[in-house]
Every structure is written in structure tokens, then in C-alpha cells.
Design a protein that fits this description.
By secondary structure, the chain is mainly α. α1 runs antiparallel to α12 and α8 packs antiparallel against α10. The relative contact order is 0.14.
Length: about 325
């Protein structure tokens, strides 16, 4: 790895750390300004003395700045606080839910790639045909319908009417099917549109006409020449959609009672479980930072000219 690559990586890491700090700071102060956890966690008939003892026990009786710097110091030490509701470390509570969210996110991402990329390629190769029109109609539908509404429609159809699939919970592939389809639909539509647009641009390039004149088969022209060059803008969108899958999981896990960090976040917000909410948001922000870093590094692997461009900008 050259000096420029190390500089590029360190710059991205510094930006990522700043992003995490800003996200953590914003959530910290918004949560404390939105309500008193003592009033939610304790019974309605709890005495003022009991509420004051609760606040003192959890350090909520101190000023926001004192709480913030204490929390920042504990995070640096790897301590993300204790859940008000469970009395366990927040990191432990969150870690229990990560596998379910990873399972749902991986299934939705697989569905996104398996449907979105081939659909975009075929639509580009059949521009103006019924395949193209059908694909574009499907992408409009995927963008237009809210994912929570699609989830409810699937439950009404496949769970309540046809009784083919379970409407909630986890445990089997049948439990996973509807949440993954719901979560991956909008992303697949986005990937299909960008893949089609990128492929159409590449197919009109001079080097594609040269490859055709050399007698290269259509299959090899697409696989060896068109797809690698069309992949760069698609990689950007895939990275963005991974973030969308993480954000969308909050809604989808609630609709299907999927026991992941999305459902945990909704419950923790309603209960003002501060440490858990802050931990989940920090985890989501960290995931986004890592995904963006991977996307940037993938750029240089797919097209080394990007790194050369960055070098010229740095030396200009």
C-alpha cells in the first residue's frame, strides 16, 4: 500500500470517527431532551423520592454536559452503559439481537443483488422491448410503495388469506421470506434502474463497438467488457442501499415482530432505555462508516484510475 493509499485510508477513518462522534452527540442530547426516563420506567404512583433515587442511581440528576462527558469517557473505555429495563450491559443486550438483523439484512441484500442486477442488465440489452418496459414498471412500483405498507399487504395476503406463511417471529426460512422480500424490494428497484442506466452508457462506448467488430461473442462482450465497467456506479448504489436496509430494518422488524436490533430500538425508544438506544444508533452509524469505506476502497480496485485522480488532486 503506497503513501497515498495510506493517506486516503487515514482520511476516511478520521471522517468516520467524526461522523460517529456527531451521531453519538446528537442522539445523546435529543434523548435527554425528549423526556424523563424515571417517569416511564417507574410506576405511575411512584413517589417523588423514588424518582429522585432512580435519577441519582443512573446519574440523570447531573447536568447534560456532565452526563455527556462521563458517557464519552465510558465509550472510549468500551463501556456502553447499562440497560434500565434489563439491568444488563447495553452491549450485551444489543449483541443478542445482531444475528437476527444480520440474517434479515443478508437475505434482503441477496435478493436485491440477485433480482436488481440481472433485471437491469436484461432491460439494457433489450432496450425498448417489453422486458425493458416491464422492468421499469416494476422499479416504479418498488419505489412508490412504502415498505411497511408492502409488508402489511403481504401479511394480509400470504398469512391471513392464503395462510401459507407465518406473519411474525423467526426460526425457519418461511419466517424470513416475507420480511426479506419487503425489505429488499425498494433496493432491488434502485439497483435495477442504476444498472440499466450504467449498462446503456457503457454499451454505447467506442470500445464496445470495437469488441463487436473483433468478433467477440455477445456473452463475452457483456461479461468481460460491459459489466466490469458498469460496476463502478452500481457499487456506489449498493453501498447506499446497504444503509437503507439497515434503516428500513427498524420498520420491517416492527411489522413482522422480527427480534433484531430494529425492534429493540423501537422498544428502547418508547421506554427511554438510553444506553440501549445510544448503543444501537452508534452501531448503525459504525456500520454505515464501514460500508462507505469498503465502497471507496472497491472503487480503486475496480478502476485504478480513481486512485491516480486522487493523487493528482492531492499534489495540485
Amino acid at each position: 500500500m503506497g503513501a497515498m493509499s495510506i493517506h486516503f485510508l487515514l482520511t476516511k477513518l478520521a471522517r468516520g470517527i467524526i461522523t460517529l462522534l456527531l451521531a453519538m452527540t446528537f442522539v445523546f442530547f435529543v434523548l435527554r431532551a425528549s423526556g424523563d426516563p424515571a417517569q416511564i420506567m417507574l410506576a405511575d404512583d411512584a413517589s417523588p423520592a423514588a424518582m429522585e433515587a432512580f435519577r441519582e442511581h443512573w446519574g440523570l440528576d447531573r447536568s447534560y454536559l456532565e452526563q455527556y462527558f462521563a458517557y464519552l469517557g465510558s465509550v472510549i473505555r468500551g463501556d456502553f452503559g447499562v440497560s434500565f429495563r434489563d439491568g444488563r450491559p447495553a452491549l450485551e443486550v444489543i449483541a443478542e439481537r445482531i444475528p437476527a438483523t444480520l440474517q434479515l439484512g443478508a437475505a434482503a441484500l441477496l435478493l436485491t443483488l440477485v433480482i436488481g442486477i440481472p433485471a437491469g442488465v436484461f432491460a439494457a440489452l433489450r432496450r425498448g422491448s417489453w422486458v425493458d418496459h416491464l422492468t421499469m414498471t416494476g422499479t416504479i412500483f418498488g419505489h412508490s410503495i412504502p415498505n411497511f405498507f408492502l409488508g402489511i399487504l403481504l401479511i394480509l395476503l400470504f398469512s391471513m388469506t392464503l395462510r401459507w406463511l407465518p406473519s411474525s417471529g423467526t426460526g425457519t426460512i418461511w419466517h424470513l421470506l416475507m420480511p426479506a422480500v419487503t425489505l429488499g424490494t425498494a433496493s432491488a428497484a434502485t439497483i435495477a434502474r442504476f444498472t440499466r442506466s450504467s449498462m446503456l452508457d457503457i454499451l454505447n462506448k467506442p470500445f464496445m463497438r470495437t469488441a463487436k467488430a473483433k468478433g467477440i461473442t455477445p456473452k463475452n462482450r457483456v461479461l468481460r467488457h460491459a459489466l466490469p465497467n458498469a460496476a463502478i456506479p452500481v457499487v456506489t448504489v449498493v453501498g447506499m442501499r446497504i444503509g437503507g436496509l439497515i434503516g428500513g430494518a427498524v420498520t420491517i422488524e416492527t411489522v413482522f415482530a422480527w427480534p433484531g436490533i430494529g425492534l429493540l430500538l423501537v422498544n428502547a425508544v418508547s421506554q427511554r432505555d438510553l444506553a440501549v438506544v445510544q448503543g444501537v444508533i452508534l452501531l448503525i452509524a459504525l456500520t454505515m462508516v464501514i460500508v462507505n469505506l469498503i465502497v471507496d476502497l472497491t472503487y480503486g480496485w475496480l478502476d485504478p484510475r480513481i486512485e491516480v485522480h486522487n493523487k493528482r488532486k492531492a499534489t495540485a
